[in-house]
Design the sequence.
C-alpha cells in the first residue's frame, strides 16, 4: 500500500493566514532525486489531483533556507514557473506540494520525441526567458538555470510548455551586493559567480546562453576534465562552435548565444531586450529548418545524471584567480 502523509500538520505557513490543516496524499512514484531532496509524483486522496511533492531532507537543509524559498514561491504566479500549492512537514523532511509538470525534464522530453528544430529551441528558450522576465521584474535572480530545472507540460492544444522550477538558490536582489555560493557543477555558472563577485539579474542570462548552446549542439560549451578547468574556460570565455556539432545551425542562432555569453554582466542585454531578438520570435526567417542532431544529448543527460555533484567553493575560486593573475 502507498504511504500516507495525512498525519502531518501544515506548519511552514510563511505568513499565510489560514489555520493548520491535514494533508492526505498517497505516493505513486519517484520523479527526481536532487542534492538535498527527493521529488515524488503523488495523488491527493480526496481531490484526486496529481501533484509533485518535494521532500527536503531536514539533515541537509536548515528551516530558514527552506522558508526563504517558500517566501519567494508564495508571491509568484506565472505560466512558465512551477507553482507552489501547499506545504507540510514530516519527521524527516520539509515537503513542498508543487504543480506537476507531467512531461518531465526538458532534455528527456526532447530525446523521447525527437524532431528537434531551431524553431522548437527558440520556443523553449522563449518560455524560459518569459519566466525570467517575470522574476527579474520582481528583482529576483534565479541563479540556477540548468537542464534539471526546466520541466515540460502540455497545454490544452497538446503543445509543450516549458516551466522553470526550483527557486532554492533564488535571491531577491536589493542595493546590497550579493555573492552567491558556488555549489555543485559549475557548468552553467556565470563568470561572476565562479569568481565570487556580486551576481546580478544578468547572471541568469549567461545560463540561458549556455542552455541554448546545449540544445543546439548536444554539447557543453565550457566543460573540461575538472571543475577547475571548466571554471577557467568560463572566465576566459573559451568556447567555439565546432563544425561537427553546429552543422546546419544558423548564424542567427550562434549570434544569439554570443549575445548572452559575455564576460561582463553589464554587456548582457536585459531579458526584455532578449525577447525582442528576431531569432526568438515565432515564425521568423533566418532559422535553419532541418532537424538538429540529438544523439549527443543522450550522452549529455547520462553524464549529468551520474556525475558526482561536487561542491567547488573556495578552492576552485582561488585556483581560477591565481591562474588568471599569472596571465596578466
Sequence:
Amino acid at each position: 500500500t502507498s504511504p500516507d502523509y495525512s498525519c502531518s500538520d501544515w506548519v511552514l505557513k510563511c505568513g499565510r493566514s489560514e489555520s493548520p490543516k491535514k494533508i492526505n496524499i498517497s505516493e505513486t512514484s519517484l520523479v527526481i532525486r536532487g542534492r538535498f531532496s527527493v521529488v515524488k509524483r503523488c495523488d491527493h486522496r480526496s481531490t484526486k489531483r496529481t501533484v509533485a511533492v518535494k521532500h527536503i531532507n531536514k539533515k541537509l537543509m536548515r528551516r530558514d533556507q527552506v522558508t526563504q524559498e517558500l517566501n519567494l514561491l508564495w508571491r509568484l504566479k506565472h505560466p512558465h514557473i512551477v507553482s507552489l500549492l501547499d506545504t507540510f512537514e514530516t519527521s524527516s523532511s520539509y515537503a513542498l506540494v508543487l504543480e506537476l509538470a507531467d512531461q518531465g525534464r526538458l532534455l528527456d522530453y526532447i530525446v523521447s520525441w525527437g524532431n528537434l528544430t531551431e524553431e522548437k529551441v527558440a520556443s523553449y528558450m522563449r518560455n524560459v526567458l518569459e519566466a525570467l522576465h517575470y522574476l527579474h521584474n520582481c528583482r529576483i535572480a534565479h541563479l540556477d538555470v540548468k537542464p534539471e530545472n526546466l520541466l515540460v507540460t502540455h497545454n490544452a492544444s497538446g503543445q509543450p510548455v516549458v516551466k522553470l522550477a526550483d527557486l532554492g538558490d533564488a535571491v531577491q536582489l536589493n542595493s546590497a551586493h550579493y555573492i552567491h555560493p558556488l555549489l555543485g557543477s559549475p557548468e552553467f555558472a556565470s563568470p561572476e559567480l565562479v569568481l565570487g563577485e556580486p551576481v546580478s539579474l544578468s547572471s541568469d542570462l549567461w545560463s540561458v546562453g549556455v542552455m541554448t548552446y546545449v540544445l543546439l549542439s548536444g554539447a557543453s560549451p565550457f566543460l573540461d576534465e575538472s571543475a577547475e578547468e571548466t571554471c577557467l574556460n568560463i572566465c576566459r570565455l573559451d568556447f567555439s562552435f565546432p563544425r561537427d556539432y553546429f552543422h546546419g545551425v544558423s548564424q542567427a542562432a550562434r549570434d544569439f548565444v554570443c549575445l548572452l555569453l559575455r564576460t561582463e554582466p553589464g554587456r548582457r542585454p536585459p531579458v526584455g531586450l532578449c525577447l525582442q531578438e528576431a531569432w526568438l520570435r515565432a515564425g521568423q526567417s533566418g532559422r535553419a529548418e532541418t532537424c538538429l542532431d540529438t544523439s549527443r544529448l543522450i550522452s549529455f543527460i547520462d553524464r549529468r545524471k551520474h556525475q558526482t555533484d561536487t561542491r567547488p567553493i573556495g578552492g576552485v575560486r582561488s585556483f581560477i584567480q591565481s591562474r588568471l593573475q599569472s596571465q596578466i
Remarks:
- The beta strands are 25-33, 37-44, 50-57, 84-89, 93-98, 140-141, 150-154, 160-164, 171-172.
